[in-house]
Write a structure and sequence with these properties.
This protein is an alpha+beta fold. It has a five-stranded antiparallel β-sheet, with helices on one face. The longest helix has 22 residues, at 36-57. The radius of gyration is 14 Å and the shape is globular. α1 runs antiparallel to α2 and α2 packs antiparallel against α4 (106-113). 35% of the residues lie in helices and 32% in strands. It contains four helices and five strands, in the order βααββααββ.
């Protein structure tokens, strides 16, 4: 069972919010003594998801949680937007798929960088993505 040790919520409304957000993610990873490689994976995943939230969801809210289970500490990030939603999550999770002019590495690439990945979306209701990166994983 996962327990939350601490929690903070950050509004992401414009590009200028991204760097302070990334710094808070890094500070949280250091706080749970996450190794440098896992920090880099977490920050890369967080950067991709926050950029998607700005680009496709017109910004939103991110929650940063320090979490612990029976054997490990980690960071859980939850990205919530009220954008148009994703009509076909299966298609969006396919390598090479993009509705923008990008390489389409975002969501599936992000999933590969973290230990746990969950996405919920409804057309006209927005999207919620939750990820966990464990210190030992």
């Amino acid at each position: 069972m996962i327990k939350t040790l601490s929690k903070q919520t950050i509004s992401i409304l414009r590009d200028q919010d991204v760097v302070p957000f990334r710094n808070k993610v890094k500070d949280s990873a250091v706080q749970v003594k996450m190794g440098l490689v896992n920090q880099t994976k977490l920050i890369t995943a967080a950067s991709e998801l926050v950029r998607n939230m700005l680009k496709y969801g017109n910004g939103g809210i991110v929650t940063i949680e320090l979490v612990v289970d029976d054997r490990n500490k980690g960071i859980r990030l939850m990205f919530v937007d009220k954008g148009p939603g994703i009509p076909d999550i299966t298609l969006a999770m396919r390598d090479g798929y993009s509705t923008g002019r990008s390489l389409g590495l975002g969501l599936p690439g992000t999933k590969r960088l973290v230990n746990e990945f969950d996405i919920q979306s409804g057309v006209g209701k927005g999207t919620t993505v939750s990820i966990i990166k464990w210190c030992n994983g």
